[in-house]
Design brief:
The structure holds two protein chains of two kinds. By secondary structure, chain A is an alpha/beta fold. Chain A has 16 helices and five strands. Chain A folds into two domains: about 240 residues, no CATH class; about 160 residues, abc type-2 transporter like fold, CATH 3.40.1710. In chain A, strands 2-1-3-4 form a four-stranded mixed β-sheet, with helices on both faces. The longest helix of chain B is centred in the middle third of the chain and has 32 residues. In chain B, about 65% of the residues lie in helices and about 5% in strands. The chains are: A alpha/beta, B alpha/beta.
């Protein structure tokens, strides 16, 4: 047993003395996590949602609805969401969008109010005119939010219009009022409370965000481990590479000339890959949790999850070493594997991938690990995590088994 | 000149000596573009709509109406399940949202009482925002005629009070029927337009993914120019050059020409592939696109030259170029659109060249910009190139 640990710790020491390797093992995920913290607003603990969307509003309508819509964008309620500028000229506003200065232009045409609210004298409304949201296709989300606000406003106005129209029609039909009373009735209605038009009759309450409060989940809690797992896959390939390096440099043959069996050497090397992976993950987790004040959940569960993720990853590292012909092949294929696993396993962007690719992503430790960290961030316990942990260890044993079979067939570990 | 070309050709041969280089030169960039393009344009086809798990405890017509409305969305779809199955699927993170329609939904709405739908979202899933917005929109669509009918009752009551509950209920029912007809035939009063129109719904996502991935995957090997210097120093070939009549400027020009040439070929292939396979509209101004790509290539290779004077070994150079390439790509908006960044950060990231390159490619491919519009970006990229070249050449040593 001691031989296995000696080989394992030797690899750990060698790896942590290799400055070039440390760049991709520790510096790269750390720098990328810092970058993520910056771009998601992780440093100031904001949610990173879209805010301060630059919008230009052009109101050519002289009625109350145009004014209300323009005021809505500038209201205190939407103050954080939009940076609004007013502009008298529609062409100039479009230019601002074309130049990429603003995300959307809200163009309220003349006659907008008159097209919805009937004239108090004639009882007729004007021809249909449309509010135009001129969107920057380069900012689909921001301009989409501006469009959603306009649509919601119109929806409320429309509800009011239809409600009023129906009320009048029904009162007329029941004989409660006469046609000659309509202007007076419309006047009374417009002075009354807006009632249901101002609120949603079917309200949607997000229990997750309402209940979150101080425990609100920070996107960094699953983006930071994503970066660590991305580079973990690279680390395990480096570990695999070291087996081929030792064979090439003759140290493998020298080890086998001592009273050490091939299986012991392989197990020791696997321990090496494993120790390095665990050390890498734990350093990154501790540093990023201190830096971003992240709550990862139950510390014991986090540690067990890390042990399991590294086991799954180490299986891949060993398999790669068994299949590859040269050390440089392990490096390049290892890097490609790290990036691909990161992409389909959700390490880059979070989220769950659906469809056949989602099924395929289950071969990656990244996908299981991402699920596990998300569960912990949600407050799940070690027991809830058991299926994830089991899946990762099964992955480890299957991959190591296949790798050992290939090593034996190639006779790589024979004296 | 022939010396410059010889050095460039030699570097090209060295780079492609290993077949695995094709992985990084072509296969991975294309794969990443395809996958990220698909994620970014999640609304491209029905199967990729975000799933919302729905527990229908009411079962009335209005609840069915709400589920049908969710299913008619282009962004989300409903999966109706019993409570325990839905909870299990949600816990397994199969879907980002779980919506419960409570028993008594229909009765409450018919009596004019607002109803609250409880929705649980998985905050660790970025699609949860899409799911929540989609459900809110569907609730609005179903709720609008109801709200109009209730408003009608309120307003009628202002004019003339109802004789009793029976009359009020009858008035509400007929108002609701009328409101549904009127809502269904209500004119469209909002129109969304943009400078560049496209029939293809997936166009935006792929254009974004393609621009971003092109920048990252060409930036990393161009920064890797640093590794060539380090490798030649390690193997002693750089010192051997000293014994020939080759000036420092000739050697550097040769390396830069080779790397830039390979970078431009890679960019051209990725642009062509994007246009053919993903139907990306790279604009009708090829000159603007070409100049932006050359300016970006120059800035990137110059950065590689400067980096070459800072690193100690070729392995260190490879690691640093991957790390820098990915970080600059992230900060430049190549992985996530800049619009998601906090406003102050959107300004800070203009300190890196990738932001300028990404903005220029977005202007060309999504905003239909030509050379005059992207000129400021080109000038900044050339400025970065000049700065990095000067620093790199000044610090360059053979040993």
């Amino acid at each position: 047993m001691s031989k296995l640990f000696i080989i394992g710790f030797k690899d750990l020491r060698v790896m942590f003395r290799d400055r070039a390797a440390l760049i991709l093992m520790l510096a790269a995920p750390f720098v990328l996590t810092l970058g993520l913290g910056l771009v998601t607003g992780g440093f100031n603990q904001s949610t990173g949602a879209v805010s301060n969307i630059p919008v230009v509003v052009v109101n050519n309508d002289d009625g109350m609805l145009g004014q209300s819509l323009a005021n809505l964008f500038a209201s205190a309620e939407l103050n954080d969401l939009f940076d609004v500028t007013r502009e008298p000229d529609a062409a100039a506003a479009r230019r601002l969008v074309d130049e990429g200065t603003t995300a959307a232009a809200v163009l309220i045409p003349a006659g907008f109010t008159g097209s919805i609210i009937p004239d108090s004298q004639t009882g007729q409304s004007g021809d249909l005119v449309r509010v135009e949201v001129y969107r920057d296709p380069g900012r689909p989300v921001s301009s989409g939010v501006a469009q959603a606000v306009v649509e919601s406003f119109i929806s409320q106005v429309e509800t009011g219009r239809i409600g009023g129209q129906i009320a009048v029609e029904q009162l007329l039909a029941s004989g409660a009022i006469l046609p000659a009373d309509i202007p007076q009735v419309v006047q009374t209605m417009s002075q009354g409370p807006a009632g249901q038009a101002d609120r949603d009759i079917i309200q949607v309450r997000n229990t997750a965000t309402d209940a979150a409060g101080p425990n609100e989940i920070d996107p960094m809690a699953f983006l930071a481990p994503g970066m660590a797992m991305l580079f973990l896959m690279y680390t395990v390939s480096l570990g695999g590479r070291s087996i081929l390096d030792e064979r090439r440099e003759g140290t493998l043959a020298r080890m086998l000339s001592t009273p050490t069996r091939g299986s012991q050497v392989l197990t020791g090397k696997t321990f090496g890959i494993y120790f390095v992976g665990v050390a890498q993950m734990m350093i990154l987790i501790v540093v990023s949790s201190l830096l971003f004040r992240l709550d990862w959940g139950d510390p014991l569960a986090v540690f067990v999850l890390v042990l399991s993720i590294v086991a799954g990853a180490a299986g891949w590292g060993l398999l790669l070493a068994a299949v590859a012909k040269t050390p440089s092949q392990v490096s390049s294929v290892g890097m490609a594997m790290a990036l691909l696993f990161g992409l389909i396993g959700g390490s880059f962007f979070g989220g769950t991938i659906t469809g056949p690719l989602g099924t395929l992503s289950k071969i990656t430790p990244n996908s299981w690990g991402q699920d596990g960290f998300a569960m912990l961030a949600r407050g799940d316990s070690l027991v809830d995590l058991l299926p994830v942990i089991a899946a990762l260890w099964i992955m480890c044993f299957v991959l190591v088994g296949v790798a050992v079979a290939i090593f034996n067939r190639k006779g790589m570990l024979q004296r | 000149m022939s010396k410059v070309l010889s050095i460039a050709w030699k570097d090209t041969q060295v780079r492609f000596a290993s077949r695995s280089e094709i992985l990084f030169f072509l296969l991975l960039p294309i794969l990443f573009t395809a996958l990220i393009g698909q994620f970014s344009s999640g609304q491209a086809d029905a199967d990729r709509r975000v799933a919302v798990l729905v527990v229908n405890q009411d079962g009335g017509p209005l609840a069915t109406d709400l589920i049908d409305t969710i299913n008619s969305s282009t962004a989300i779809r409903a999966e109706v399940l019993d409570a325990s199955e839905a909870a299990r699927r949600f816990d397994d993170r199969d879907a980002p949202a779980l919506l419960t329609i409570p028993a008594g939904f229909e009765a409450a709405l018919r009596s004019g009482e607002p109803v609250e739908l409880a929705m649980e979202t998985d905050a660790t899933n970025l699609n949860s925002l899409v799911a929540e917005q989609g459900v809110r929109a569907a609730a609005g669509v179903v709720g609008r005629p109801l709200a109009a009918a209730l408003l009608s009752v309120d307003q009628a009551e202002q004019v003339r009070p109802f004789a009793g509950d029976a009359e009020r209920i009858a008035f509400f029912d007929s108002s609701l029927a009328a409101a549904r007809t009127l809502t269904a035939s209500a004119p469209v009063r909002v129109e969304a337009t943009s400078a560049v129109e496209s029939d293809d719904a997936s166009w935006n996502g792929y254009a974004f993914a393609s621009s971003g991935q092109l920048i990252i995957w060409t930036l990393i090997p161009l920064l890797g120019t640093a590794a060539i210097f380090a490798f030649e120093r390690e193997t002693g070939t750089l010192q051997r050059l000293l014994t020939t009549a080759t000036r420092k400027s000739t050697y550097l020009s040769g390396v830069v020409t080779g790397q830039l040439g390979m970078g431009l070929v890679q960019m051209a292939i990725l642009v062509g592939f994007g246009a053919l396979a993903f139907k990306i509209n790279w604009g009708d101004k090829p000159a603007a696109l070409a100049v932006v790509l050359v300016a970006f290539g120059l800035a990137a290779v110059a950065m590689g030259v400067m980096l070459g004077t800072l690193v100690r070994s070729s392995r260190q150079a490879s690691g640093v170029s991957i790390m820098l390439g990915m970080t600059l790509g992230l900060l430049g908006g190549c992985m996530w659109p800049l619009e998601f960044f906090p406003p102050a950060v959107q300004r800070i990231v203009h300190l890196v060249p990738t932001t300028w390159a990404m903005e220029a490619l977005t202007d060309i491919s999504m905003r239909g910009a030509g050379l005059p519009q992207v000129m400021p970006n080109i000038a900044v990229l050339l400025g970065f190139a000049a700065l990095f070249f000067v620093l790199g050449v000044w610090r360059f040593r053979y040993e």
